[in-house]
Amino acid sequence: MSQSYLNPTPQIVILDAGGQYCHLEARKVRDLGVYAAVYPSNTPAGEIAFAKGIIISGGPASVYDPDSPKVDPAIFAHGQPVLGICYGQQLMAHLLGGEVTRGEKGEYGLATLELDDTTDPLFSGLSGHQQIWMSHRDVVGAVPEGFSAVGRTDTCAVAAIAAPQRKLYGLQFHPEVVHTVRGMEFLSNFVFRVCECVKDWDPRHRVPAIEQEIRDQVGTRSVFFFVSGGVDSTVAFTLCIRALGPDRVKGVYVDTGLMREGETDVVRQLPGLTIEHAQEQFLGALAGVTDPEQKRHIIGEEFVRVQDRVIESRRLLEESWILGQGTIYPDTIESGGTTNAAVIKTHHNRVAGIRKLMESGRIVEPLKSFYKDEVREIGRELALPAQLLDRHPFPGPGLAIRCLCSAVDAPLLTTPEGAIIPVNSVGVQGDSRSYAPVLAIDSLDHARATALINRLADVNRVVAGVELKVPLSGMQVRACSLTPVRIARLRCADAIVRRVCQESDYDRRVWQFPVILIPLGTVESPDSIVLRPVESVDGMTAQSVLMPDDLLGRLNNEILQLEGIAGVFYDLTHKPPGTIEWE
User: Fold this and answer.
1) CATH class for domain 207-398?
2) First to last CA, the chain
3) For 194-225, what is each residue's pLDDT tens digit?
4) Are 447 and 555 in contact (CB under 8 A)?
């Protein structure tokens, strides 16, 4: 290796134009064996002149918005190769004299690219029909002088542009996501054929570098962890123990009352941890709350209160200490953690109290630059058991953000496309946050669901009713908040899903399987369950998948036997536009 893991010089610079994807692009380039790093979009060209190539990332803005992210136009004139992705293509076209227009309808999810047969090095060996991943509404209407349009989809006439003599390229789609089936070939062509980079980065064997970073940041202090028992916090906890020794690392597991069935008993087996019971504190603070962002903020602030109480009771303030967290990169991105990033949802590790600790230098987050799959790789290097590393991700706020609430009673709205359920869920459309009602249709049809989301601006998620005690027309949304009864109802449904999936080995065939409770039903049975199995690599994008009929039927039968459940629905929404979690 020609450079340090701690302070490498990037060959590829990613200019952050405000989307979720800039760090995923950097990670994918690193997976090719070339180090890449993210810089603010407006970084002067002279400060990144060392780079062999530049990528302008996607983002939610329009190039015509006065506050939209900009880049230094000089980057297009210095001879460095530049690749614009999504908003990056639009910005490149706009700054170089092309035209960007508002699309008639957006594209969010899978699309088919028709790529011309061309000798341009970026597109070498890639011509023809292929599946790609789109997330945009604006489009390039006219390419700049010297460019040619070399790719298109059914709804986007300019899906790829090229000026090979100037080494300038643009892609309206996202090559960095797994659902663009040949995406890594596009990135590899840019990195090696266009930029002529050499391999200088091995994505494996990171543990010594991370441990050194922990020692450098912590210094002579000790570390105190609140461990959830999930992959991220356990790997971070283990890294700190290895870096600092067991005498300088303490851990507590907080039972918030929002945990899955049996979760506390599993965590109790981890060495070096004690249990803090705080069910009444969390449920009391959440009583009557319906807004999802408020729920996340409350949970984060209650964690800080528990932290303060535990630290005081254990006299930890008499020592030099620092708080450890298992935060990973998608948590920081979706919370608006980079210069231009849109807030998709606020992670509980990024609320005000935690940010104050960060500002005072009292937090160490060994995994904050990594994605879930990378965390699992690190865990394998640490020799942690596969039973722990292969567990499905579970959100820090627990069942609170899977138990949806409503401030008012509200009827369903019947439309030609289906029934609008007046329960809002968070999504990401055009790389920015959306918060919109849910559309229910009568068939398990992913293609139909994707088409409806692309066409209907006021919907960001589509579900199908698969088993209902009464017709959908006989249900309505009822005012409710987080109550012990509703949380217990969700916990029972989640336990059924986990048990059936483990017995059938289905849990190994999907990346994550959230189970959501929504306040849709009747007076006797006021709630319904939504099933959300998804495939993903890193959580930044995800694809809804269908279960086998026999397995789905088994789940439906068992869940409908639960008291208070009126129906079972199936989430057909990919990410984007629907985030994996509903809140």
Assistant:
1) alpha beta
2) 43
3) 999 999 877 567 899 899 999 999 999 999 88
4) no
pLDDT tens for 445-473 read 999 998 998 888 889 899 999 999 999 99
Burial class of residue 183 in the structure, from the number of CB atoms within 10 Å of its CB (0-12 exposed, 13-18 middle, 19+ buried): buried
What mean pLDDT value characterizes the chain? 88
Structure tokens at 525: 């049975």
**Residue of 285, 304, 303 lying closest to 294 (CA atoms):** 285
Put simply, whether the predicted model's pTM sits higher than 0.85 gets the answer no
523: left (phi over 0), alpha (psi -120 to 50) or beta: alpha
Phi-psi region of 270 (alpha: psi -120 to 50; beta: other; left: phi over 0): beta
Top-level class of domain 12-194 = alpha beta
Would the CATH topology of 12-194 be identical to that of 402-571?
no
Domain residue ranges of the chain, discontinuous segments joined by +: 12-194, 207-398, 402-571
Tell me how far apart the alpha carbons of residues 475 and 566 are, in angstroms, rounded to a whole number.
8
pLDDT of residue 267: 76
Give the residue from 424, 528, 529, 519 showing the smallest Cα distance to 477: 519
So which residues are the catalytic ones? 86, 174, 176
pLDDT-based confidence at residue 344 (cuts at 50, 70, 90):
very low
